[in-house]
Amino acid sequence: MSDQQNWAKVERRFDATMDQVWAMWTDPALFQKWYGPMGMTVPVAEMDVKVGGTRKISMEMVTPDRTMTMWFTGVYKEVTPVTRLVYTEAMCDADGVLIPPAQMGMPEGTPDITEVIVELRDDGGKTAMTMVHVGVPAGSPGEGGWNQAIDKLGEMLAA
What we know:
By secondary structure, the chain is of the alpha+beta class. It has helices at residues 18-26, 28-34, 141-158; strands at residues 7-14, 41-47, 54-62, 67-80, 84-92, 113-123, 126-134.
């Protein structure tokens, strides 16, 4: 049995209102501008942000040798404006059909479906954010990708 926790947790404080941070997570056009690790773009962000609503996201990285595209889909489980957002995430193809993580080169044991929990709270006019991705191990490349994405989110909010 491993002692590694099976979730990535990112905590940040932004010099922005809760409404502004919430919009970054729920407005597809804004989400596309910051989501994903450095070097990746988000050509598609379809987000029906309501309980039971679905989401489909495409991340893409273009290199001189090839273009790598990854698709993710999920369902919103909790939507409490402007404080809490919970959604599932699973790898899929461009049509939204689920594919096993191993097919995308993910390590053995990677769960088919993970869960993202975003909590926002007012912190003296600024916003404290805690994001937990259950199923993405602490210290993994997935956690590193989240940190890079949240860095981009912070840069956008500071601009």
